[in-house]
């Protein structure tokens, strides 16, 4: 048996494999908050990470990264990619768990593939985990895995963490395979969510299915349990995820100079508003563009004084709702520039690409206002990253009430992304506040910075793993 005592399993590895036409293989960081949060945790634990390398039909031999993480690639075929990844994970579960922003598709074939791929992940993990190891399973793509793995390897300690919201029982109940998913999750010793509200939804659902619940949910400790018929107990708790805040907060003179130059390129005197997201319909990118456009239209913002920079990572590009969102966003960018830009001076700067972390940090640092407007988001690490980059108390955050981060970042300019007037008000208040009430904004930023620095990703991982150990 293998000697991996700590194994993380996620659909994605932290790196994506790219093979050039001449066969040369390179790895690039993979997208999303899950990978951003877990990478530093695994590096500290010298752990083993089981996951998909981001390409179809290829799974290189396991290897160790320069920073000591053992990567164990799992192969997905084209049919797996379509049925498990694009289908059941991202066209069924993703929209269902994000409160039906688009309509979920319930497809029996996708469900079968989802089950098969979860079985395959279980075999892989069973082969790499040491006797009595701790296995930490991540996210909605692998909800059957705890149950399957417990049957295969009853010696393991199994944790499960959901990185996206958990919906109200009435929404979850739409799912034709709802019981199977709940049974899958019950294979874990501890099930963690970002927010107490998510955990309460899960407990309400369990009660509805006749499972006995004891205790009340709390944050970073386990005071609620599901009591199973076979005498086993499953802990349930809230563990708000976070970022490697210290790394984000460290600024050399060269980094600071780079951020200043970036701002100067956009216009020294201009107020720079920034959006950074995966290009996903949950993120409300179109709505924020429309709010910005209306503020320009009414003269509340002057196109000579402000600009908006939107950096959007390509994501799930073949799925219809993602294609539609991209074309709507790009149409809006074109329209707004057509209406308000001057030659050589766009009002919206749009990049459809992933950028290296260092560059992203410079964007965060130079931005006067950060716009984070998801319709629904488990946490939203972008909001926390922006805050961590502003240890000098500069800047302002406009944040959707429907992002999990709003529970902690209460000093943000909160808005309701379903109400365009609400986004406009929050954005205008932030822009005007920068000039009229700089000391108020600095106080707000100071409080949020302290919150993010104290509640970093180590606290998230350690509190979850401590609770799991005490199960
Ligand atoms: P999600 O997990 O839904 O994508 P989060 O906001 O929680 O949303 O996490 C997104 C992560 O991806 C953050 O760590 C952020 O820095 C990173 N990210 C987002 N957009 C880009 C981009 N264009 N280039 C590089 N990293 C990005
Ligand atoms: C979110 C999900 C992750 C996912 C990431 C990127 O953060 O919670 O599980 O990995 O988005 O999405 P992708 O589909 O590219 O893996």
From TrEMBL:
Listed CDD domains: GT20_TPS
GO molecular function, one term: alpha,alpha-trehalose-phosphate synthase (UDP-forming) activity
Domain of life of the source: Bacteria
Catalytic activities: TDP-alpha-D-glucose + D-glucose 6-phosphate = 5-methyl-UDP + alpha,alpha-trehalose 6-phosphate + H(+); GDP-alpha-D-glucose + D-glucose 6-phosphate = alpha,alpha-trehalose 6-phosphate + GDP + H(+); ADP-alpha-D-glucose + D-glucose 6-phosphate = alpha,alpha-trehalose 6-phosphate + ADP + H(+); CDP-alpha-D-glucose + D-glucose 6-phosphate = alpha,alpha-trehalose 6-phosphate + CDP + H(+)
Pfam families: Glyco_transf_20
Enzyme Commission number(s) from the entry: 2.4.1.347
Biological processes annotated in GO: trehalose biosynthetic process
Family of the protein in this entry: Belongs to the glycosyltransferase 20 family.
Descriptive protein name: alpha,alpha-trehalose-phosphate synthase (ADP-forming)
Organism annotation: Corynebacterium phoceense
